[in-house]
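HOLO CASE FILE
Compound: zinc ion
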Amino acid sequence: MRKGSPHLVRDLNRSAVLRLIGREGPIARAEIARRLRLSPATVTAVTRRMIAAGLVKVVDQAPSRGGRPALLLGLVGGAANALGVKVAADHLVGVRVDLDAEVVERFEHPFQADHPDALDRLADLLRPYTEPRVDSPLFLGVGLGVPGVVDGGDHKTVESPMLGWRSLPVGEILEKRLGVPVLVDNDVNTLAVAGRLYGRGKDVDHFLTVTIGRGVGLGIIVGGDLYRGAHGGAGEFGHIAVVEDGPLCECGKHGCLEALVADPALVARGEREGLLRPGETVHRLRELAESGDLRAARIFADAGSILGRAVAGLVNVLSPELVLISGEGTQAWPQLSASFHRGLTEAVFPPLGSVPVEIDPWDDAKWALGAAALVLRATFVTPLDERSSDHSVRARLEPLAAG
Ligand SMILES: [Zn+2]
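Model generated. Tokens follow.
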């Protein structure tokens, strides 16, 4: 049992019980008591208040040998809402979710990220979704997924060539404008976290999420958690050097993976080879390949091969249990697949060659759900992997738990 002032002990116990139910619910009271080394009476008192407050409910019964079946407790999804938003250069996609990560509302707005007043406009677009609702009076915070590097400290300052944001304190500015916690992370990281919490990676401790499309991204889950590196920039897979003196990349260097296989590179080659007229997109190139144009098919096949070899490099270094390929570029997977697998097989270290590669069908809302997961995870992270901003989210939820 913890020692300290009675108030502090009660708050710590409540916080620990709430995190455990959020993280591992549905869970029985006896299991909570055992895991947190609390007395059954304390757990009963704490959870009774949470049930009365509408934050926790009995969701199921576990069979038990003899005696009464144990009641399993879980969070009440509708007790609180959070917002997840994926910001792209020309639009944003958002979802309002409940505590169970069920999507309550989905929206999309045109948004010009490089406009001088972009953050004011962003705050105006998001404000209506952050206000308390009749169906869910408590709003926890906004999670924002952005293409770029988000600093590893407070996760609020963004460096994104794609959005035209240079050392922009996005989180801080939006928090001031909206008056709610705002958590920011790289969009592929949020996608990987969503995969870990709610998706294919739920039971996989080591996996990679590779995204293709407008850019090439990577989210690394190691030992069940996101690997961020020393400065939050881990996962800049798109900028590994593939060829010497290759095409110019958005990052300023030449020959990056992204400059060879991302959509703009495919379109540029399509134009050079006279397959696309200026202004036509990768969709047109895909149509050509689908309709049997061999030169268009060659462009995708070359990209697939380069990507497969690059992913083999990741597999050799990180030895994941699973590689998920996601992003809007997966729409061209039928054109990429054969050469991707050939490239992967050729370049992978043989004992690691059996790693499964799965396509995670592209859905813009999935990115937004990942951003919402930034906020939801704050309700159940352990103190060890906590960020400062997680506390501001929990500070909104825990008074409710006190009943
Ligand atoms: Zn680059």
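CASE NOTES: The longest strand covers residues 138-146. Residues 239, 249, 251, 253, 256, 258 surround zinc ion (CB under 6 Å).
CLOSED: yes
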